[in-house]
Amino acid sequence: MRNILAFLTKFGSIDRDIWQLQLSKGEKVIERKIFLKGKISSRNYIYAESILALERLEENFRKELLETQTPIGKVWRQQRIETFKEIVETGKKPVGELSKYFSVPPESNLLFRSYCVLTNGKSVMMITEHFPESYFLED
Question: Where are the beta strands (DSSP E) in 62-137?
Answer without folding.
Answer: 84-94, 109-119, 122-132
